[in-house]
Amino acid sequence: MHLLIIGAAGMIGRKLAERVAVTGRIGDRAVDTLTLADVVEPEAAQDFAGTRHAVTADLTEPGTAERLIGARPDIVVHLAAIVSGEAEADFDKGYRINLDGTRALFDAIRLTDGYAPRVVYASSLAVFGAPFPDVIADDFHLTPLTSYGTQKVMGELLLDDYSRRGFMDGVGIRFPTICIRPGRPNKAASGFFSGILREPLNGQEAVLPVDEDVRHWHASPRSAVGFIEHAATMDTAALGSRRNVTMPGVSATVGDQIKALRQVAGDATAALIRREPDPTIARIVGGWPRDFDTARARDLGFRAETSFREIIEVYVEDELDGKLPSG
Amino acid sequence: MHLLIIGAAGMIGRKLAERVAVTGRIGDRAVDTLTLADVVEPEAAQDFAGTRHAVTADLTEPGTAERLIGARPDIVVHLAAIVSGEAEADFDKGYRINLDGTRALFDAIRLTDGYAPRVVYASSLAVFGAPFPDVIADDFHLTPLTSYGTQKVMGELLLDDYSRRGFMDGVGIRFPTICIRPGRPNKAASGFFSGILREPLNGQEAVLPVDEDVRHWHASPRSAVGFIEHAATMDTAALGSRRNVTMPGVSATVGDQIKALRQVAGDATAALIRREPDPTIARIVGGWPRDFDTARARDLGFRAETSFREIIEVYVEDELDGKLPSG
After folding, report:
1. Which of B163, B225, B286, B321 lies 20 to 30 A from A176 at CA?
2. Does the record bear NADP in its keywords (chains A, B) (predicted)?
3. Looking at A121, A148, A162, A315, which residue is catalytic?
4. Are residues B133 and B256 part of one domain?
């Protein structure tokens, strides 16, 4: 079976590729050919036992989608996108990459005769826009408040329509905020959700710019890879005509996060969090969703952590070789 | 003030243009220049007292949107679309006209410096897809089951995003099924909703292909014009970030329709309806929405008929010069 991952140089794409390399499978399906594509050459999964292709490809360039689809991969995982901040800063680039790039991919698939692969599409909580109910139901309307969110909904709609027409067999997954993101601190407004845990777990100080009662929706990178694996191999009949699904996660306040950090790593580690209120970040984050009813996703077999403590333990296992900071 | 109507040769476009010609206004704003555009030359409003332009224009041809927007009309009413059946039959044409045409128009507006006109966008109940609750709330999610519905939602999303960015001041209106449509019978699955009233009111037999308990959502052509006039001139601050609104209407069963016809025009007229069940039409119509909670639209000042009797009376006044069939 041939698996194509587009956006394979990103954090989730790399983790997915590494897992496929280790297991030789995605979900319950054996992978013999793995094609990794991104705008920069993907480095992951060098030790994959099957045939591995690394492709530098920009979906917005004419012919690129057709070239990627030419080998008729059985499963296409489409993670390529520019992020929220960049799509907001550069209007044309956001629509070109997130909308036109996705449509180019879907059309290349549509126009390949006798071909209808499983397509896993990475969507986002940004498809939702405030004001929200406290718990957002699966049938809540999609009213994004960013260009990124708008582009992601448009991709969801194409996925539904192209699947209904039989051009592909799509599953759209709306990722929670991924926590704890490995790597270095970044400037994203959401960065502190990971930073206040990651930096202390690495023995470093972290800044908390919002109040402890700020609530948000989280899942680990390991869960994110699991969502993709399940979406790539599940029986899509259960989805009916609504192929985009809000993924399960943990609704937690910042206070819950800190409490879990203290439980896992002790008071001294939690004491590395320094309060430094930032009204701008507080205002941005104040408009974000806090909690979801994801009964549908769970009924469909998607699984995430069930406590924030578990999210932290996943990070310690996957990124710190199980080692907690001393002291 | 300059009003541009795109899709001015269609039924609603013609009625809107005629009304502007008669009143010299749209809503409470005086119109001195009226530009009518369509893929065939618009014939309406020949007697408009101001400056009238009739333009043959296809939004999907390069440069057309720029040409229409070049004169910087203050209000742009965008009614141009291919209908549901055609968008389903011709995939490429549907996306080209309904999505790319709309985007070309919106981008021509966006790229005109210092210009942010009121844009009224015709959307549709087709943005919703079964299964539905009995009454569809304003925050029900958008899960279209046709390519037409998909394209209409994508236009709604662009309208929201382009308005949020300040490129335009958009209002999207989701029309009910328009009843009683004037003119000749057509082959649309929805055609009988008008036909079982229009043909008897014109002394002719009509065919009813579904059961009398089929329920649907209706408003008159006069209300449709009123929706556009209100959307063109309302204070959009009240819309907040959610600029697409399900219009008010009358939820009525076919039985309610026939009862109202009997009340207005007598038993002999209603007896011209011949039952001829068509399982295909019954199945299609069975997937359509039945009722909406449109408190939001009414709070925003949109008005429709409140009974089916009123919808019939509007037809008799506007299309039959107030004359009922004899007998």
Report:
1. B163
2. yes
3. A148
4. no
